[in-house]
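Dear colleagues,

As part of the handover before I leave the project, I'm documenting each prediction I ran so the next person doesn't have to rerun anything. This entry is a single chain, and its sequence is reproduced below.
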Amino acid sequence: MIKKKFYIGIDLGGKEKKTTGVCVLEEKKIVLLKDVFGRDVLKTINPYLKEMAVIAIDAPLTKGRGKGKMRLYEKFLSTSIFRKEKVNPLPPALMEKLCEFAREIVEKLEKKGFVLGLNLIETFPTLVKKICKENSLSINFPCQTENQKSASICAKVAFLHSQFKTRYLGYKDGFLFLPEISFWKREWKEKFYQAWKERPHLKYRYLITNLF
């Protein structure tokens, strides 16, 4: 008998607010799509964890040390090209409670056997949606809220990660996972490569990626 495999996407919101989107996929089929209170997220996904392949979360899962507590990849994604397209991440210092809650979730999932960067990854659905070709992610789910839309994108990234179709950007202070470049719009392949080529090498000498 073939075991089921599930892929979870989480758009993490406040602990005491019903702003966390959760999406569970079995291959490309939706099993669960809903908004929950942040405090209930682990209880919500717990029934699927034994058959879980990958969990992808939209939230800062690691702690940065730079200005605004930003991690190196967040600094890179805050350069002019990304700011102009409004896909630059918020500085973690502006959402301290969420960051603390995200790391709390990571710690609890690690106790259940998940490994950060392996089958527990961080992604950024705002950027994924912007850079990827329309319909390339095949997400046509009946999302009722923006949180659910973001969670569904995270779930698809989790599925792609299990198929070795994601790439990373980051440093030891944290890695972001994105769909491989074959899913990207041509214009964004060029924009991203240009931003990478023009980055100040001294400032970003430790930043690594396998996108190209």
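The chain has seven helices and eight strands. The radius of gyration is 16 Å.

All the best with the project,
I.
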